[in-house]
Automatic annotation (TrEMBL):
EC class: oxidoreductase
Protein name as catalogued: methylmalonate-semialdehyde dehydrogenase (CoA acylating)
GO MF term list: methylmalonate-semialdehyde dehydrogenase (acylating, NAD) activity
Listed Gene3D superfamilies: Aldehyde Dehydrogenase, Chain A, domain 1, Aldehyde Dehydrogenase, Chain A, domain 2
């Protein structure tokens, strides 16, 4: 394996451009912090405009050769990457835990979901085929073809540093494009690790680039004439900015934003199962997941039982560093974010929600940015904690009189990333599937995360664009279609 600096404390993160590791030459930097102990472990140095321009130039040049390579040849480094990711997943998970804070089990799960995308992209020779119709008109055969476009970029958030870059990279390069990843400046070590494996997998220089930085790096990429398209995953205000800026600069763009998802608990549901799934959905990754369900909309008939069982189960929830085998949940990403979440809890109390389980009273490790799970009851969806994305371990229970009111409550959210329903009634499941306004829907599953061969994307303020991440949508995003019309009058 190539020389790595991921486990060398206090080393800077490097860019990977044209097949070489280079130091970024911009002026700003960001500390990478082990949130379980509150210690800086490395720094992200930001790229200068020149660094970004060089990455785009190199990628544009590499594209000219890469696009001509047979598709079978383009997927060989992906097969090797899959094997390398599997061989190194344990070590990579430890890097991920260190820079992010999630538990090792969550990190391993996330890496597995990333590998799944590499596997799906290995099927590009079939997926990229379009259509052919002989004798589409007199003496005419017609063939649809899909062609790669050039340089694509993906800008990714802190909360899934392994999986989210892999929603994009494998499909971009397998379809014949070249690619630039701009990972979160808060959690770039996992991306650096993946790029060390990418180097070993043997992609030709310039096909994949890693460029570190913050918002200036993003804006330089979005305004660059030679970048054909951008994928974004992050908060809603930045998603809107990326969508608008990329579109104003003539690029195709898909921008995934924030979320405030709901679980509906029908009076027909298996309450014990629903409690178990709700806890995992709301609190895994300390609630820092776009698919977390931080609101449970519960039928009045089962509300008290559901609330009591939840509060009781939280007594056994273990908050500890992510490498601790007993940890159910690790710390939040930063002290600043912990303060934000604490402010939401205070606001919840001020606005009259009932505090059923107060995570602030629970003993957690002294160092680091820990906060135990918190549970509010009788939340009104119009309260601040009922409608805003908190992105922390805070679950709100909303009491409803019937199923109609439950669906209305879910649909009144400005967001539409995901929703889940716990029920034993097929008719409710059907109504839920037809009427709920969200992109990822789960029935009797707390976290509606599609496999990589299905697309992933939200609705409303959770997504800007049309083609989503993962699966077949990626083929359409990364290619342009042409129809080839052929006539041979002598034939
Ligand atoms: P963020 O929006 O702060 O940052 C995401 C990326 O945007 C980073 O790479 C960052 O460098 C860049 N960025 C930040 N500010 C920018 C600006 N002003 N201009 C240009 N670029 C900028 O998000 P985050 O805090 O890293 O991640 C958490 C958010 O991501 C949550 O809102 C969460 O719901 C969302 N998220 C959504 C999905 C989804 O699929 N919808 C998945 C994961 C996370």
């Amino acid at each position: 394996m190539a020389q790595t600096n991921v486990d060398t404390e206090l080393d800077n993160v490097n860019n990977y451009i044209g097949g070489d590791w280079t130091e970024a030459s911009g002026s700003g930097s960001e500390a990478i912090v082990d949130s379980a102990v509150g210690e800086t472990i490395a720094r992200t140095t930001f790229s200068s405009e020149d660094d970004v321009n060089r990455a785009v130039d190199v990628a544009a040049e590499a594209f000219e050769d890469w696009r001509q390579r047979p598709v079978e040849e383009r997927i060989q480094p992906l097969f090797r990457l899959k094997t390398l990711l599997e061989e190194h997943q344990e070590e990579m998970a430890e890097v991920l835990v260190k820079e992010h804070g999630k538990t090792k089990k969550e990190a391993m799960g996330e890496i597995r979901r990333g590998i799944e995308n590499v596997e799906v992209a290995c099927g590009i020779p079939t997926m990229m085929q379009a259509g052919h119709l002989p004798n589409a008109a007199p003496d005419i055969d017609e063939t649809a073809v899909r062609k790669p476009l050039g340089v694509f970029t993906a800008i990714t958030p802190f909360n899934f540093p392994a999986m989210i870059p892999l929603w994009f990279l494998p499909y971009a390069v397998a379809t014949g494009n070249s690619f630039i990843l701009k990972p979160s400046e808060t959690t770039p070590l996992t991306a650096q690790y993946i790029f060390e494996l990418i180097e070993e997998a043997g992609f030709p220089g310039g096909v994949v680039q890693l460029v570190n930085g913050g918002k200036d790096t993003v804006n330089t990429l979005l305004e660059h004439d030679d970048v054909e398209g951008a994928s974004f995953v992050g908060s809603t205000p930045v998603a809107k900015h990326v969508y608008e800026t990329a579109a104003a600069n003539g690029k195709r763009v898909q921008a995934q934003g924030g979320a405030k998802n709901h679980i509906i608990v029908s009076e027909s549901s298996d309450i014990e199962f629903a409690v178990d799934q709700t806890i995992s959905s709301a609190y895994a990754n300390s609630g820092q997941r776009c698919l977390a369900n931080p609101s449970a909309v519960v039928h009045d008939d089962v509300y008290d039982e559901f609330a009591d069982r939840l509060a009781e189960a939280l007594e056994d929830y273990t908050v500890a560093g992510g490498l601790d085998d007993d940890a159910d949940m690790g710390p939040l990403i930063s002290e600043e974010h912990r303060e934000n979440v604490l402010e939401y809890i205070e606001t919840g109390e001020e606005e009259g929600a009932e505090l059923l389980y107060d995570g602030r009273d629970v003993d957690v490790p002294d160092d680091g940015y820990f906060l135990a799970p918190t549970l509010f009851g009788d939340v009104d969806p119009e309260m601040t904690i009922g409608k805003e994305e908190i992105f922390g371990p805070v679950l709100s229970l909303i009491r409803v009189a019937d199923f109609e009111e439950a669906i209305e409550t879910v649909n009144q959210s400005q967001f539409g990333n995901a929703a889940s329903l716990f029920t034993e009634r097929g008719a409710e499941a059907k109504q839920f599937r037809h009427e709920v306004e969200a992109g990822n829907l789960g029935v009797n599953t707390g976290t509606a995360a599609p496999m990589a061969f299905f697309h992933f994307g939200g609705w409303k303020d959770s997504f800007f664009g049309d083609l989503h991440a993962q699966g077949e949508d990626m083929i359409h995003f990364y290619t342009d279609e042409a129809v080839y019309i052929e006539r041979w009058p002598d034939a």
